[in-house]
Amino acid sequence: MLKLKVLLIALLFLSTVVVVVAANRLRNEKSIVPSETNGTINQPSNETNTASDALEAEATQYPFRLTITLNKTKFSLGETVNITLRLRNIGNETKYLLVGRDVVSCIVYDEANSTVWNEIYHLVFIAARLSKRIDPGEEIVFESYWKQTDDSKVKVPPGTYHIVGALYCGYYIIKIKTPPITITIVEQK
């Protein structure tokens, strides 16, 4: 029983180290322009920007397609930004996302392209949500949200921000970042 506990603690420590390494790789990237991906952005159809006007961006690196979706692009100061990330296996073989190795998250940048908030630092144990089997054509959906704070939990000011979806998949040596979705945060009067 003691050996099992020691083994579990060692596995947990190793998983945490891998997640931290992946997070640091994502954090150290300042540019919001995705590299080594084929990305597209779908704009809303009109300027009213209501909740029915979905906005999404996607990027593909075989065998995965990562899509980020927001329901609007204009938010009141302090309003939660709901984000949907969808990861699809576009390949012909079953793939596995494993605990402690693979990370799906969203990242928020300011107008100077500096990282404001990286979701990976705010999840209790991100790897727990990524122990998944993905068959060809299958899609996994992750619901995320940004409470308009920076990584230090300080409220951000009104302004323009860019949100990207990111996948770091160590075993398959895949790193995908979607093109940014630009949002505006305005003060309510």
Care to describe what's here?
There is one protein chain. 14% of the residues lie in helices and 40% in strands. The chain has 189 residues and is mostly beta strands. The longest helix is centred in the first third of the chain and has 26 residues, at 2-27. The protein is globular. It has one helix spanning 2-27; strands spanning 40-42, 55-61, 64-70, 74-76, 81-89, 95-97, 102-109, 115-118, 132-134, 139-146, 159-169, 174-177, 181-186. A hairpin with a 5-residue loop joins β7 and β8. Strands 4, 7, 8, 11, 12 and 13 form a 6-stranded mixed sheet that branches.
Return the domain count: 1
Count the beta strands: 13
Topology-level CATH name? Immunoglobulin-like
Which CATH architecture is right? Sandwich
What is the average of the pLDDT values? Answer: 77
Number of helices: 1
- Cα-to-Cα separation, first versus last residue: 61 Å
CATH class: Mainly Beta
Whole-number radius of gyration?
A: 17 Å
List the helices and strands and how they pair.
Blueprint: H1 2-27, E1 40-42, E2 55-61, E3 64-70, E4 74-76, E5 81-89, E6 95-97, E7 102-109, E8 115-118, E9 132-134, E10 139-146, E11 159-169, E12 174-177, E13 181-186
Parallel strand pairs: 4-13
Antiparallel strand pairs: 1-2, 2-3, 3-5, 5-10, 6-9, 7-8, 7-11, 11-12, 11-13
